[in-house]
Design goal:
The chain is built from 13 helices and 15 strands. By secondary structure, the chain is an alpha/beta fold. It folds into 2 domains: 4-198, 3-Layer(aba) Sandwich (Rossmann fold), CATH 3.40.50; 213-420, Rossmann fold (3-Layer(aba) Sandwich), CATH 3.40.50. It starts with a strand and ends with a strand.
């Protein structure tokens, strides 16, 4: 009998919720991680994941979970799930180095009869064209014959109080029909609804479709926000009015840019795939252009707001409220606050930030001063820029005491001193 039911490679925001649910279901779970700091923290009961409390981690450890840097544990695992990052490189092309490295590690330790699942978001064909050859060449085993291979895209939404791993439907595609059945059986042990599809490419495409859909619709309302301002139209009110339609419309809101791993990154994986066919994916590339423009537009609006009150950006104190990419979490990945801050600093602004979830924040390696007291920060700032609507923020303080305020999230009441994006 194998020592572990599940080995997870990559103990981040995807791997740890998976470990939590599998452990709670009674599976014997081991986590493999290359970062010694993360291994030490997890084994000591200290969580670094928003959706995993220290108490959750203590329950997992009591249930037998442990983290290790010893790859030999993979040879003793019935199922191995790869949950490593898939970022973009400097040229905005997919960077699969972590996937290739993790797959190579699996290959060195792969035993016949095992199930290998890739959960990392990637372009259609990766499981078959990248992961499978590495696994087969490194192990001497054949996928679909000696071991099972599948792809199941992660659908983790950090900070979502309603949907977690257990109650979010899980899409699964196998290299063969038998691979699919094996993966469906595995996930069904701790996920309420598993959605099988005919192959790994369909599962890979499903993830990219989900996020490209959001990317394009966010770009739509972001572009509308720009011209509605010039037309004198309250887009926020128009969106709420349109959202009363009970069919055919889903509400998306404008903002200072898109953040997190999924929206800024995943559509580029799809665009990359289409470009290999010889033509551009124009919808995605246009959406990317619009959404990447938003931080510059926000800075231009700050300039305009200050200018109307005879103040230059140079030397003005700008308070940035909320520097994470989502409300009520500490995740800063791809946050639009970064390019906004960078541009304001280049114009000579004196930056300060307030965020209950971020204690230390740097822009290009330079620390930005943190203001603990929201009221003090708002009163002292020449302009307050609301970038993220954390529930901990008292909006009335911002509305009542801010000298000038630009609200990029549409949550403040507009007035003489408060403008919405």
């Amino acid at each position: 009998m194998t020592a572990y039911d599940l080995a997870i490679i990559g103990l981040g925001y995807v791997g740890m919720p998976l470990a939590k649910e599998a452990t709670a279901a009674g599976l014997r779970v081991i986590g493999f991680e290359v970062d010694p700091g993360k291994i030490a923290a997890l084994n000591a009961g200290r969580s670094y994941i928003d959706d995993l409390t220290d108490a959750d981690l203590e329950h997992m450890l009591a249930g037998g979970f442990t983290a290790t840097g010893d790859e030999s544990v993979l040879a003793d695992s019935r199922t191995i799930v790869i949950c490593v990052p898939t970022p973009l490189d400097e040229d905005h092309r997919p960077d699969l180095s972590a996937v290739e490295g993790a797959t190579g590690t699996v290959a060195r330790n792969l035993r016949a009869g095992s199930l290998v699942v890739l959960e990392s978001t990637t372009w259609p064909g990766t499981t078959d064209e990248v992961a499978r050859p590495i696994l087969e060449e490194g192990s001497g085993l054949t996928a679909g014959t000696d071991f099972h291979l599948a792809f199941s895209p992660e659908r983790i939404d950090p900070g979502n109080p309603k949907y977690g791993l257990r109650n979010t439907p899980k899409v699964v595609g196998g290299y063969t029909s038998a691979c699919k059945d094996r993966a469906v059986g595995f996930y069904s042990q701790f996920i309420e609804q598993v959605v099988p599809v005919s192959g790994t490419r369909e599962a890979e495409m499903a993830k990219l479709l989900e996020n490209t859909y959001r990317h394009v619709n966010i770009a739509l309302v972001n572009e509308m926000a720009i011209f509605c301002d010039e037309l004198g139209v309250d887009l926020w009110e128009s969106i709420e009015a349109a959202a009363t339609k009970p069919f055919g419309f889903q509400k998306f809101l404008p903002g200072p840019g898109v953040g997190g791993h999924c929206i800024p990154v995943d559509p580029s994986y799809l665009s990359y795939t289409v470009r290999k066919l010889g033509y551009p994916f124009r919808f995605v590339e246009l959406a990317q252009e619009i959404n990447e423009r938003m931080p510059s537009y926000v800075v231009a609006r700050v300039q305009r707001l200050l200018n109307r009150h005879r103040k230059p950006v140079n030397g003005s104190k700008v308070l940035l409220l909320g520097v994470t990419y989502k409300p009520d979490i500490a995740d800063e990945r791809e946050t639009p606050a970064l390019p906004v801050a960078r541009a304001l600093r280049e114009l000579g602004a004196d930056l300060v930030f307030t965020d209950p979830y971020v204690k230390d924040w740097r822009v290009d390696g330079v620390q930005v001063p943190r203001e603990e007291d929201l009221a003090k920060g708002v009163v002292e700032a020449d302009v307050t820029l609301l970038l993220q609507q954390h529930a901990a923020f008292d909006l009335s303080i911002i509305e009542d005491q801010g000298k000038l305020v630009l609200d990029t999230r549409g949550v403040l009441a507009e007035g003489e001193r408060v403008e919405r994006l």
